[in-house]
Each structure stands twice: as C-alpha cells, then as structure tokens.
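User: Structure with iron/sulfur cluster, tokens only please.
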Amino acid sequence: MTTLLSTVEAPPRYIPNDPRPTLLGLTREGLAEAMGRAGVPEKQRRMRAGQVWHWLYQRGVTSFAEMTNIAKDLRQRLEETFIIGRPEIVTEQTSNDGTKKWLLRLAPDERGARHEVEMVYIPEEDRGTLCISSQVGCTLTCTFCHTGTQKLVRNLTAGEIVAQVMTARDRVKDWPQDIEANPTPPLSGRYITNVVLMGMGEPLYNFDNVKDAMEIVSDGEGISLSKRRITLSTSGVVPEIQRAGDEIGTMLAISLHGTTDEIRDKLVPLNKKYPIKELLTACRSYPGASNARRITFEYVMLKGVNDTPADAKRLVQLLKGIPAKVNLIPFNPWPGTQYECSEWDTIEVFAEILNRAGYASPVRTPRGRDIMAACGQLKSESQKLRAKERIALDATQ
Ligand code: SAH
Ligand code: SF4
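Assistant:
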C-alpha cells in the first residue's frame, strides 16, 4: 500500500533558495559554534548548545518555537539563522509483512537539485531495524545490486543521515514522549532498536559524514542508540576498515558474497582493487572484534553462481580465526537482473555446512519484497545533472 503524505502531515517544507543552513548533523562542538553565529556570547554557547541538542535529539522537535526553555528572542534569532527541517516524505509504503519504506526528498543542494533516497523499517517481535542510506546512488557496481545500477549522485551530509533516523522516529512514533503516551508500548521499549547502514551507497566512501552522524545517533543524551546496535555494512573498502573501527566504532558487516577472487571480482568489482585476502586481513585486526562482538559476513545466495557445498566449505576456511557470523541473504530480484535466487534446499545445505563448522548462519527472511524494500532493491530516480541541465535549472530559479 502506498500512501502519499499530505503537506499537512509532512514536516516543514523547504523554501526555495533558503540560505539558512540546518542545525541537524552538527557535532556538539559544531552546535556550540553555531550558537555563536546566532549571537550567543561565548560563555553561554556550550550551555545553549546543550539545550538545543536536547530538543533536537531527545525530543525530536521540528521547530524552534517548541524549545520552550530558551528565551523567545534567542529562539527568534535561531529561526532567522538556521533551519531544523526533515526531508520531505514523497511516499510511504507498507508491505503486507509490516515493513515500511519511505522515499525521501532532500533539501536542494547548492545547484538547487532535490535528490531522493530510500529508507526501510523492518519490525520484528523483539526488535525494529531501520535501514538507512549513506549516499544517493553508489560509485560501485556490484552486479546483483539494484542500487549499483544508479550512478553516484552525491554523498549525503551528516544532517541528512541523522534526519533519516529522526524522520523514521516521527513516522513510527518512537520519540520518548510518544512511547510514554502509548498504551501498548513495544516489548523492547522502543520501536527502532537497531540501525543498519545497508541502504543506498557505500558508507566508507562517505566516511566523515557517516562518522559524525553515528556519533549523534549514539549520543546518550539524544537518540541514544548504542553503537553495538548500529551496523555499518561495507563492500570491502579495505583502507578504511581499521579507521572505521577506531573512529566510528559500530558493528561491522562485510559484503563478501564470493569465496574465490574469480567469483567475487564478478559480483563485487571492488574486489579487483582489494581482493579477498586483503579484506580478511583487515577484518582480523578490526578494532573491537571479539566473540561477543562478531563481524557479520553477508552472503547473497545466487543460483548457480556462489551456492555450492564447495563454496560453503571454502567460506568456512576463509573465516578461520575471525570472530564471525554469516548472514545468508536470499537474492532479492529486481527488474532487469541477470540473477536468480538459489533454491531453498540449496540454501539449507549451505547453511548446514556453516552451522556444523560452528558459524551461526541465519538465513535472512526476505522482508518487504512486495514493495521493493528488501536488501539491494533500493534505488531512486535521482541522477547527477549534466552541466547543460544544471544551467537550465539555474535559469529557472
Ligand atoms: N554498500 C554497502 C551497504 C549497502 S548494501 C555494502 O555493499 O555492503 C546492503 C547489503 O545488501 C549488502 O550486503 C549487499 O551486498 C546486499 N545486496 C545488494 N543487492 C542485493 C540483492 N539484490 N539481494 C540481496 N542482497 C543484496
Ligand atoms: Fe553499492 Fe553496496 Fe550495492 Fe555494491 S552492494 S553497488 S557497494 S550499495
């Protein structure tokens, strides 16, 4: 079911050519500095930034008017200097299994273009996982991935990454005051218990913005999602893996998908640059990995490509010495793909070999396939404007 949200329901719309920057996505220091730009004297900046932080990330307000413990004249100055809006929700779809997918339209970039990204919420009995995007499109071209057919348009800003989590909290009524007022709150105390960077894009190619965004999302005085409940998935950008562990500190998932360089080169072309051996060496020294904090290896099951018992055995060998679990993902089809999902029996045989070798290897139940919300099905219509198109767009504004 697709719902087009009315303007009334949707958060504030962007004013064309609005020069005011957003406060969302600034770190605490950045926010304190921003207070200076709204005329707050140096001595008060940290305190004011703390108050604004609370309203933004603990309460989820969408206007300065709601920040009631801040004097009216300062609220006025903040309003004149900054915005805190959310992206526009173009569509909200609900799958017959309860999965939700949103198409979000971002604020205009410096060229005036308004790009779009998708985001998915997967409710389960004991948890709710929000899958967010880190880029519009992707520079990489994994052959089984729908996003990979969309060229990279641009990186998302830290604010746009955080705003996805905030928008999802708005829509599923997950802010603390909503939960308090809820007569039947969720088992786990909140609806969004986990965040995965598994939407559109390669998060390690947008390192700094992802880092700032995850700092904000995990801040204990805000959205407060522990880094143990945030998973960053990478297709294997080896030089950034160590740094991701040191500086971002979330759980790590590796999109492995092949057990020989020959196969993986075809599936994940980045493998030609960073082959399996180098990738696994980086995983072996991933800071913070332990039996309690295992690295997840994602493995998409493609019929006749990577799904034999010999592949499963090679996988076991490759993972030796790494605190690992394997996530077997039945391939999710999309229009125009050359691949098919492995037969169920084949997947079971594969999983059994991994299980017997001591690797937990749950088969991920496909969720939201009917609304193209499952792994690897996300894509938006956004395209990078060619120079000619940009000039035309500029002329209209
Ligand atoms: N770019 C990152 C994160 C986004 S993709 C990465 O590649 O890791 C999230 C996961 O979905 C990855 O493991 C990806 O390989 C997998 N995936 C992509 N297309 C898929 C498809 N059609 N079916 C199932 N899984 C897919
Ligand atoms: Fe990009 Fe990940 Fe898709 Fe590969 S699987 S094209 S890295 S989004």
